[in-house]
Please model this.
Amino acid sequence: RRLDQYYVDSAIDLEVTDQQIVAHYRSNAASFKLDHNKVRGVVVKLPRNFRNTSTLTTALKHVAKNGIAEVQAFAEKHSLHISDMSTTWVSYSDFLSNLPTERTRDYSALLQKSDPQQMSGDDAIFHFVIMDVARKGETAPLECVEDDIRRRLYAERRAEIVTAYE
Model:
């Protein structure tokens, strides 16, 4: 084992390029199927008596095209709580945990809409938009599996070196 590690340490190339990651992703897409829905989106929590919702709705409508900066500025200006999941993929259940949902209800209909939506809670109103959806059974987005691909490529390189020296 130590000898294998010695040969691996002396010969392995630790750099994994983006092109290698993309090539591996494309050639092994079938092994990256999702077992649950993943989304990217934004949730903004408003007090029940908040009146300026039209500006927020407009900002949420354009968040996919213009980015999150306008929504963040609005939330900061009015001291609102924002849950920004626009740059990273999260499980749909994690996204729903930011909303006043009930465990027994099915919220899969929310995935069909790309427009801003709202949901009322006991003390607040939640405005949200789901920007992207990766559905269960589809190939996972590259961003979700990039680290896994890096580990796979490293393991393949390591195995090749050990096999060559054996």
